[in-house]
Amino acid sequence: MTTLVHGTDTLTRDALTVLQPGFVGTTAPDWLLRRIGEGLSSVGLFGRNIVSPEQLTALTAQLRAERDDVLVAIDEEGGDVTRLEVKQGSSFPGNYALGSVDDVELTRAVARELGRRLARCGVDLNWAPSADVNSNAENPVIGVRSFGPDPDLVARHTVAYVDGLQGVGVAACTKHFPGHGDTNVDSHDALPRIDVDLATLHARELVPFRAAVAAGTKAVMSAHILLSALDPHRPATLSPQILTGLLRQELGFEGLIVTDGMEMQAVAATYGIERGSVLAIAAGADAICVGGGLCDEGTVLRLRDALVNAVRTGELPEERLADAAARVRALAAWTQSHRARGGAETVPGAAVQEGTAPGADIGLVAARRALTVTRGERPYTPMTSAPYVASFTPVANFAVGDETPWGIAAELGRLLPGTETGSYADSSVDAVLAAAGDRRIVAVVRDAHRHPWMTEALDSLVAARPDTVVVEMGLNEAEPRGALHIATHGAARVCGRAAAEAVVGTAS
Fold it and tell me: How far is 443 from 470, CA to CA, in rounded Å?
């Protein structure tokens, strides 16, 4: 017999509890507040929902006025993937920069400061860090979001990041299980496939996730990828062998399993989001993330009804849905207890280095340390007059988006007023040379190794103007070129500032 809880039957309430939807707007729409009252336990925030810390704080307060224990989640990786600073660029370098420095205390300090900012605004679940081992340099969606290609390095920095976030009361959601690093397809667009043997998966992909589970990560996000050695038929998000067999039983994870966005084509194009959501919960997932693209009341109601109907027809065991909802509520209770006592401000046993204390500009500190500067054959003279910045711009992947600015032109303009810039998408450099005139040129690229036209453009530009400075803001895989080659290991705003300082010779 179904019981009623606050006017909503238990089954319907549980179905709402396992959803993590997004919405449009900088205030909560009426439909969202109404569904929170009926049992919706989580809300996902994206760049479209945020304009300032003050506005974000007011938004989370509005949500919690309806229900104090609602989980407010965000996709805030720092670096290239930022929602807090979607219009400005992040104050924190991303994982690739932190991995290149390879100082776990620096990584922990960056995550703690990011966590403090989230907690102050009322956000208590972060869909981060990425624990993917970026073993495929051609990967179009992970890249600088990974700490690097070495499993042990990724593992130790994943643990530090989890510690940093959770030490200030923000739950970490380690992703994308069981590892999205060896893919050459973006799961936003299609289903990636990894065909390596079990021994390779255990020695590479799973190493950081084992470490994160041992470190107590509160949540893990599944990947929409097919790993034939684990399950040749269903992507990880929909696979009982992977979510229940591997993550729950073999790795011993007891926290919240969250799906990647169910509207992504890797799942939606084959199963549809309703069927995909039922299969995900049945496979062992506890929370359905949806809202990067679909973010209206109709979507929430369709998913709710699909889950309820699946229980009523016997396709989804009621106890499985109840268990998933209970795990959501358990995490909500953990975050609520941290908010009640103001959050933890220290991580037991963690050494804090000079310059990494609370309140320090730790993001810029980290970005400066992450720079790799290679001088060309000729002596380099720092720039003292306004240059021309030529940005060779690839198509942004969906996770990063195209609304977050990147590059170094704005930061160079602060140091050298009058700096001008242009964006280019082909290998011809005639337009660059014409626009630059007699000014020195700074060429900015992102993953030049993945875009032959960029490499061709850089070679032509350096041949025509040997004093050209090259700034690589993606993976540092291509050979250095130019009078000065600066690898920032990421395109965050602070990475641009650090690079601009190196161009003018003021880098500390």
Answer: 5
One of 188, 224, 338, 489 is an active-site residue; which one? 188
Q: Residue 229: exposed, middle, or buried by beta-carbon count in 10 A (0-12, 13-18, 19+)?
A: middle
Q: Which of 14, 75, 163, 260 is catalytic?
A: 260
What would the pLDDT profile of 55-88 be if each residue is shown by its tens digit? Answer: 999 999 999 999 999 999 999 999 999 999 999 9
Residue 152 among the catalytic residues: no
Residue 260 annotated as catalytic:
yes
- pLDDT tens digits, residue range 390-426? 999 876 655 556 678 889 999 999 999 999 999 998 8
Residue with tokens 């309703």: 274
Q: How far is 268 from 104, CA to CA, in rounded Å?
A: 38
User: Cis peptide leading into 151, omega within 30 of 0?
Assistant: no
The number of residues in the chain equals 508
Bond from prior residue into 129 cis (ω within 30 degrees of 0): yes
Distance between CA atoms of 160 and 154, rounded to whole angstroms? 10
β strands within 355-397, DSSP E: 372-375, 388-392
pTM equals 0.92
Main-chain phi, psi angles of 338, to 5 degrees: -65, -40
Burial of 437 (0-12, 13-18, 19+ CB in 10 A): exposed
Residues in a beta bridge with 74: 45, 126
Torsion sign over Cα 94, 99, 100, 106: positive
